[in-house]
C-alpha cells in the first residue's frame, strides 16, 4: 500500500505513476452518475408494500411478535448500514487505497441508514410489549425510562446519519472539484467517527437489545454486537461489489479485491465467533443464576436448535467455505457466502430479541418475515438509488490508481 501525501498540492504524483497529476485532475470533466438497478427497484417497492401489509395484519393479530420482528429487522439493517459506514471510515483512516474503486458501495449502504432509523423509531409505540422495565418497577429508573431511552435512541441515530452524510458529501465534492482537501477532511472525520461509533454502538446494543432482559447484563455485549456490524457490513459490500461487477459497472474491481473482501469476511466472522464463545463460556463456567437466565431461555425448548444453528451459519460454514485461497478469490463463491452471512446476521439478532419476550417456542412466520421483507426491501431500494446518485468510479480520488492496480 502506498501513502498519498495529502498535505501537499495535487501536483505530487504517487503509486508509481498510476495516479492522476494535477493537470489531469482539473482538466477532466466531472464524472456522471447513472441509474443502478432500474429493473430491481419496482420489485423492491412491491416487496416493501407487501411487507407493510403483512406487518399491519401482524399488529392486529400478534402485536408483541410484530414489534419484536420489527426490532430484529430494524437492528439488522442498521448493522448493515453502519457496517458500510465503518468500512468506509476504516479504509480512509488507514489510507487503504485498494478499496477506492469499490467505495461507492459502502457509501450507499451508509446513505440508507435512515431506513433502519425510521424502522427502529417505529418500535417505540410498542416498547411496553418488549421492554419489561417500561411498566414494571426496577432499580435502574435513572437510565431505563422511556423518555430518556427515546432521546438516546434519537441522538445515536442522528449521529450515525450525520457521519454518513458528511462522508458522502465530501466524496461527492471531490467528484466535482478533484481537491485533495476532501481526502484530508475524510481522514480526520474517520478517526473521530470511529471513536464515536465505538462508544455509541455499545450504548445502542445495551439499550436496544440487552435491556430487553431487564436484570441481565454482559460487559462483552457491546463489543459482541459491534463485531456483528463488521460482519454485516463487509458481507453486504461483497454482495454489492460482485453484482455490480457482473454488469460491468465496477471495471476496476478484480480478483484481488474479491480476495480481500473474502479475507475480511473470514476474519470478522471468526472475531464474532470468538466473542460469542467467550461470552457463553464465561457465563456457563461461573453459573450465576442472574447471568444464566439469558442462555437458559435460548437453549431450552425449541430455541436450542436455532441457538446452535446460529453458530454454524455465522461461523462454522463460512470458516470452512472461505478457508481455501481459491474460494476467497471466486466472485460467485464469495457471493454465496456473503448471502449466507447476511441471513445469519438476522438470525443472530432474532435470537437476541425474540426469546426475551413471552415466547416459549420460536415462531418465524408472518410477523417476523413481513417486517424483514418490508424493512429489508426498502433498505435495498434506497441503496440502489444512492448508487445511482454518484458515478460508481471515483475518478478524482487520489488513491484510484493504486486501487485499479491492486497487486493483492
Would you give an account of this structure?
The protein is mainly alpha-helical and 408 residues long. The protein has one domain. The chain contains 16 helices and no strands. It is globular and about 60 Å long. The N terminus is likely disordered.
Search tags:
408 residues, 16 helices, mainly alpha, 0% strand
Number of helices: 16
Number of strands: 0
Largest sheet descriptor: none
Terminal Cα span: 10 Å
Q: Which percent range describes the beta-strand content?
A: under 5%
* Tally of domains: 1
Q: Can you describe this structure in just a few lines?
A:
Helix 5 (113-121) packs antiparallel against helix 7.
Per-chain topology:
Blueprint: H1 22-27, H2 40-61, H3 63-93, H4 104-111, H5 113-121, H6 127-130, H7 146-177, H8 181-208, H9 221-246, H10 255-286, H11 289-298, H12 303-321, H13 325-328, H14 331-353, H15 366-387, H16 400-404
Helix pairs in contact: 2-3, 2-15, 3-4, 3-5, 3-8, 3-9, 3-14, 3-15, 4-7, 4-15, 5-7, 5-15, 7-8, 8-9, 9-10, 9-14, 10-12, 10-14, 12-14
Amino acid at each position: 500500500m502506498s501513502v498519498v501525501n495529502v498535505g501537499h498540492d495535487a501536483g505530487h504524483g504517487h503509486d508509481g505513476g498510476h495516479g492522476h497529476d494535477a493537470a489531469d485532475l482539473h482538466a477532466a470533466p466531472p464524472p456522471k452518475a447513472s441509474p443502478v438497478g432500474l429493473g430491481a427497484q419496482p420489485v423492491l417497492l412491491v416487496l416493501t408494500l407487501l411487507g407493510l401489509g403483512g406487518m399491519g395484519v401482524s399488529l392486529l393479530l400478534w402485536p408483541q411478535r410484530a414489534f419484536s420482528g420489527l426490532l430484529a429487522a430494524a437492528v439488522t439493517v442498521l448493522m448493515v448500514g453502519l457496517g458500510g459506514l465503518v468500512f468506509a471510515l476504516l479504509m480512509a483512516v488507514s489510507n487503504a487505497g485498494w478499496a477506492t474503486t469499490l467505495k461507492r458501495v459502502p457509501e450507499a449502504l451508509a446513505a440508507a441508514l435512515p431506513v433502519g432509523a425510521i424502522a427502529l423509531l417505529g418500535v417505540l409505540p410498542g416498547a411496553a410489549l418488549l421492554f419489561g422495565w417500561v411498566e414494571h418497577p426496577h432499580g435502574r429508573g435513572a437510565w431505563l425510562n422511556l423518555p430518556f431511552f427515546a432521546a438516546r435512541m434519537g441522538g445515536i441515530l442522528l449521529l450515525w446519519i450525520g457521519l454518513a452524510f458528511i462522508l458522502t458529501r465530501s466524496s461527492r465534492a471531490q467528484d466535482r472539484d478533484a481537491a485533495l482537501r476532501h481526502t484530508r477532511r475524510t481522514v480526520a472525520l474517520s478517526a473521530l467517527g470511529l471513536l464515536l461509533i465505538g462508544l455509541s454502538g455499545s450504548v445502542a446494543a445495551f439499550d436496544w437489545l440487552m435491556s430487553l432482559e431487564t436484570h441481565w447484563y454482559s460487559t462483552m455485549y457491546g463489543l459482541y454486537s459491534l463485531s456483528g456490524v463488521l460482519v454485516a457490513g463487509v458481507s453486504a459490500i461483497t454482495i454489492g461489489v460482485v453484482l455490480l461487477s457482473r454488469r460491468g459497472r465496477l471495471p476496476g474491481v478484480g480478483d484481488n479485491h474479491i480476495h480481500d473482501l473474502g479475507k475480511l469476511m473470514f476474519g470478522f466472522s471468526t472475531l464474532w465467533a470468538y466473542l460469542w464463545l467467550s461470552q457463553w463460556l464465561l457465563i456457563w463456567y461461573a453459573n450465576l443464576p442472574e447471568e444464566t437466565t439469558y442462555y437458559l431461555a435460548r437453549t431450552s425448548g425449541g430455541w436450542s436448535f436455532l441457538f446452535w444453528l446460529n453458530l454454524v451459519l455465522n461461523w462454522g460454514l463460512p470458516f470452512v467455505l472461505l478457508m481455501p485461497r481459491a474460494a476467497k478469490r471466486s466472485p460467485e463463491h464469495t457471493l454465496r457466502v456473503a448471502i449466507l452471512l447476511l441471513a445469519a446476521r438476522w438470525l443472530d439478532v432474532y435470537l437476541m430479541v425474540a426469546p426475551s419476550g413471552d415466547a416459549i417456542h420460536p415462531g418465524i412466520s408472518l410477523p417476523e418475515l413481513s417486517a424483514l421483507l418490508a424493512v429489508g426491501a426498502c433498505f435495498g431500494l434506497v441503496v440502489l438509488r444512492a448508487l445511482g446518485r454518484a458515478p460508481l468510479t471515483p475518478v478524482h480520488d487520489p488513491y484510484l490508481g493504486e486501487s485499479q492496480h491492486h497487486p493483492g
